[in-house]
Structures are given as structure tokens and as C-alpha cells.
Amino acid sequence: MKSSATVAKGSTFLQLHQAERGFVMPNAWDAGSAVILAHEGFAAIGTTSAGIAFSLGKPDYRVSDARAAVTREEMLDAIRRIAAAVPLPVNADLESGYGDTPEQVADTVRLAIAAGAAGCNIEDVDRATGGLYDEAAAAARIAAARAAIASSGQPFVLTARTDVFQQGGADGVPLAIRRGNLLLEAGANCIFAPGVTDVARASTLVREIAGPLNLVLGLNEASSNAHALIDAGIQRISVGGSIARSVLGFVRRSAHELRENGTVSYAAEQIPQGELNALYERTWLSQNP
């Protein structure tokens, strides 16, 4: 059963992808981080599979033992908590859809809609091989996701992620253009092409791909500017797990200082207890009237 709040979030998220100017969508890994990001005035929040995995003490990607991988149920539980914690649209990182077949991808998307997500990413990487699905299979997976969304009657943004640049091929730009347009034709609302952070290539993708584009900053660099990429026509900028990894970096530096020096200078950067209490209480009550 659709709630009015969930429908409103989905409609808002669709409108953001149709707006004249793009937007920044930071990525949360739990309800607490989502509330902080929402309080800073962003229009939408994405989840980060990396941040969620690390919060569970598990690895993300390139998992050598399948038993250590985050399960679909664990990921959906985190998405559900994040979506329930904030009044903003939440885009769910669903990795490769937790299955190879179109039917498995469709089932995962249905579960994400039920969890309160306003949109999702579906990757075109075969986790078993590490390579890209062939174009027909990638398109069939997106088409199945689109059919599941249509059946739900829910406003929902379907983002097709293509990892052509992550694969390191010399023909990344033309391949991203071809696959991006193919996936838009299959039913995607937005194309996500991680690995591009420069304005020159971004501008080419904007010109040649017939739909909204998402780029991610902070994966392996820290010098790009979201506003410059939006000026170039990129519709959505996300940051993946970079905030979560930075927080863990801060935890490690703090632990090192405490162990080696016995000092707590890291505490100077903390948000005061009273401020956090007030923020979380106010947000919780607004979400649970």
C-alpha cells in the first residue's frame, strides 16, 4: 500500500531529475548520518553500499568469500532505516540487483520500493566475473526493473549504472554513450557513469547521452568540484562511500592519538551532545507524528 509521504518523495525525486539545474546528493550509511545530511539542506540522499557494508563490519566489492558479503536483506534493512529517518527522497544503492537474471533484479527493485526508497541504482557489472554484462543482458535487466516499477504504480527514479570507465578501456567515452542510450531506451530515468570527474568528458557525455547523468566524486580523488560539473550539465552528483570512509579515517586517527599520546584533541571536532540530542529528537518526532 502506497503512503502519501512515499508518493510525494518519489514525485519530488523525479522532478529533481527534470529540473533545469542539477543537484548534489550525498550518500548516507545509517539513519544517523542521513539525518545530519538532511539537516544540511540537501534535496535528496543516496545510500552507499560501501558505507553500509563497513558499518556492518563487512567488505564491499571484490569479496573473496561470499559468506562475508552483505546480503540483500541486510542492505534493504539499512535502506529502510535511512528512508524512514528523513523527509527527503532516498536513492538506494542496489549494486547489481542481487541477482543475474532480470527476474531477480525486478524482485530486488520491488523490495526497495517497499522499503521506502524513491529511486535506485542498478549496476551493469557481473559480480561473478567482474566484467560488464553484454548489452542485451544489461538492457533486459533494466527493462525488468522498469516493469516492476510500473506495476507498483509508485513514482520512482531508475538509475542505470554503467562501469565502463571502471573497467579501464581506452574507448570509455563512446562505450558509455552507447550503453547509456541503450539503457535509457530500456527504461532507465538516469545514467550513472562512475570514473568521470573532469568537465571535458562530462560535457561530452551530457551532449551525447539522451537523459540525465549522475557522476560520483570522492572515489579516488579529492579535487573535483560538484558545482563545476553541474554547470557543465550534469544532473546529479553523488559521493559514494567517500564520507563514510572519511569518518572511518577520522576514527582511526583518533584511536592512534589516544593510544600513542593519551590525548583527545580529536574531541574538538565533535558535535555537542545537546545539539545532537535536539536534532535527532526533532527529526524523529517529525517522522513519527
Secondary-structure map with pairings?
Elements: H1 4-18, E1 23-25, E2 27-28, H2 31-39, E3 45-47, H3 49-55, H4 72-85, E4 90-93, H5 102-114, E5 119-123, H6 135-152, E6 157-161, H7 172-186, E7 190-192, H8 199-208, E8 213-216, H9 226-231, E9 236-238, H10 242-261, H11 273-287
Parallel strand pairs: 1-9, 2-3, 3-4, 4-5, 5-6, 6-7, 7-8, 8-9
Keywords:
single chain, 289 residues, alpha/beta, 9-stranded parallel beta sheet, globular
Describe the model:
The protein is an alpha/beta fold and 289 residues long. It has one domain (4-241): Phosphoenolpyruvate-binding domains (TIM Barrel, Alpha-Beta Barrel), CATH 3.20.20.60. The protein has 11 helices and 9 strands. The protein has helices at 4-18, 31-39, 49-55, 72-85, 102-114, 135-152, 172-186, 199-208, 226-231, 242-261, 273-287; strands at residues 23-25, 27-28, 45-47, 90-93, 119-123, 157-161, 190-192, 213-216, 236-238. A 9-stranded parallel beta sheet has the order 1-9-8-7-6-5-4-3-2. Strand 8, helix 9 and strand 9 form a beta-alpha-beta unit. Helix 2 (31-39) packs parallel to helix 4. The protein starts with a helix and ends with a helix. The mean pLDDT is 96.
